[in-house]
């Protein structure tokens, strides 16, 4: 069913909009099944009793962990407040720490109750979407402080676990990272305004189930090309770095499709690019790595989309490439110099 807007154009009904948003969110959530559908079902391997014990142990340390995480976040990014001209009043450590505690508490309770990861993704999406919206409403760069706070909290919690315990719990923590770094709720809401059979929505439904695989292949390819490269947290094959690399490729994809749906370069220009300028030099991520990632992403789109579908993405893809081009970030400069030039 559809309705007409004031100009007489067909618009999806409210029911259709809700259905579209739900379908896209489920397509995204399925990636957790695909990524972790190993023969031993790692994320299911702990018994309910053991899960409850692990969850309680982490809950007991959660308050102190979130405080430690903010200290690490501040040490990493405090200089960026002045350097990037960010209004320090927008960064409220107490509220950020409170939000971190609240979300991790929900995740750990869900873990103890054996809520499966894809179900958790659907359950947490609105909360994390609201948090993301609140912190990006005035200055999108503030989400960097929030994301790093959540990231460090998760890393500190995992550090206290055995490797087997980490394997099960980290799947749940990944849901948090994904929903905070990427404007998923905004993507779903925008997509819901499209007709079910529109080229943009058909293309998004087609590519969304593959975006995790695309990201994994690109991250692996880049680490193969740069076996000796080290960023802030270690080499590109370091599990933590590899996970972050995959997430970043996914993030670039989501922002590209958001541009397509909004018919605007604003998501890249006003959100993604400023975040990268602030974070990548700090994390010792070279711009050539970013350019290689964008290039490989273009090749993947070329293999998976029709020419008509590519024509939708191409204008925004070109903008993305140009913004990270050598003309903007000269390759001859070291990362530290790039930070100053940005």
Number of helices: 14
Approximately what portion of the residues adopt beta-strand conformation? under 5%
**Residue runs with pLDDT of under 50 for 5 or more positions:** 332-342
The assigned structural class equals mainly alpha
Description of the molecule:
The strands form 2 sheets. Strands 1-2 form a two-stranded antiparallel ribbon. Strands 3-4 form a two-stranded antiparallel sheet. It is globular, with a radius of gyration of 20 Å. α2 (48-83) packs antiparallel against α3, α4 crosses α6 (163-181) and α7 runs parallel beside α10. With 342 residues, it is mainly alpha-helical. The longest helix is centred in the first third of the chain and has 36 residues, at 48-83. It is built from 14 helices and 4 strands. β1 (2-4) and β2 form a beta hairpin. It has helices spanning 14-35, 48-83, 93-112, 117-136, 142-159, 163-181, 184-191, 199-207, 211-225, 239-262, 266-282, 287-304, 307-323, 335-341; strands at residues 2-4, 10-12, 230-231, 234-235.
Task: Write a brief caption for the model.
This protein is mainly alpha-helical and 342 residues long. The protein is 73% helix and 3% strand.
Layout: helices, strands, pairs:
Elements (H helix, E strand, L loop, with lengths): L1 E3 L5 E3 L1 H22 L12 H36 L9 H20 L4 H20 L5 H18 L3 H19 L2 H8 L7 H9 L3 H15 L4 E2 L2 E2 L3 H24 L3 H17 L4 H18 L2 H17 L11 H7 L1
Antiparallel strand pairs: 1-2, 3-4
